[in-house]
Amino acid sequence: MKVTRAMIAKEAGVTPTTVTCVLNNTRQVSDRVRKKVMDAIDKLNYVPDVAARAMQGKGSKQICIMVDSIKNPFFAELVYSIEAEGIKKGFFFSICGKMDLKTYVAHIIARKIDAVYFCSEILSDEVKYISQLLDNGIKVLTSPKFKHFEGKISLIDMATGEAVKNAVKYLYKKGHRNIAFINTFNENSALDDRLPSYKQITKELNIHAIYSSPDGDLAANIDNGKMLFNQLIDQHPDISAVIGINDLVAIGAMKQAEESGYKVPEDVSFIGIDGIELSALVAPPLTTFKSDAETLGKKAFQMLYDMIENDNITSYNHSLTLIERQSVTNKTNNN
Question: pTM of the entire structure?
Fold first, then answer.
């Protein structure tokens, strides 16, 4: 039998209107009355009809999280943190791996999802989907900066470009001069700031820029880290340090270096960006710039909630912290 608000009201000894006020936060209710209603909801296992709520223009209390790859442990940690915060507010989450963005966007609109968090990079030909979501009243939170959507979407700056700069500076202070960057995005991509940041800092330090840049965007995973390291070392055998676009790429490159006969870190040092748990478990443990996924997830949900409930557009800069481990050594013989 379907549990109704009238049944909750009877169980709690209040009016159905009071139950509605508690569920929708539309009127101030005393803590004692709120507890009675919530206890009745728990006892009767009441499930709100979010479809009906959405049709009434009150929101579906659903959020979609779009990630580059659900196989990346960083995204798993991030999604867990967002979900933990959202469940407290009664939100339901859909997780999508961006395999078919056009189809996903159609479903998001049809299901009247309240908001979408793109914690993935958005390619130039995908920007049109942001417009489509906004045109249908769906809130958007994303990491890249789209100036033509300024004031319409909330932004989280993951500060990965800043981390790349700091990684180069860190290696430079340790005596490295042939510092390579493994990039998995096309060199002309304007929506990821890591390669431009690398080029800028190497120019400032007056050292040669050495980097990979595939013709088409690649998944930032271990296998591609191996493949791109091989390409780099063939062209630049004097590399002394490598920065991966993320931890998985750095780990892949490091493993390939070892398989190719290089000693890590004696011959080549490695740094990643993310701070996933795996980075501490590989041998040698990977030096990385850690993004606190738990803190980031909490902040992301707060921003999503603020957009949905209050129509507030906000921004947030999330700095990364250097975690020094054994994959980097001092380079005493400067070039």
Answer: 0.75
